[in-house]
Model the fold of this input.
Amino acid sequence: MKYLVVLAFIAIVASLASALFFMMRNGRNDKSKGGHMAKALAVRVGLSIVLFVCILVAWKLGYIQPTGLPAVSK
Done:
């Protein structure tokens, strides 16, 4: 499960870097540049949602366990 999370995180960062590349690239057609950047950001959002759902499913199936902070009693 750790490898899946790390791989998804790398894909999310790569998609964000791709959007940055399209934003910074000078082109003659600004619509084309904006379209590529929007598509890269949409992929990033989609990957983030899929990662979140996968983490919830893994928790529900028992593949991962929450550790949390110990409760402090007063």
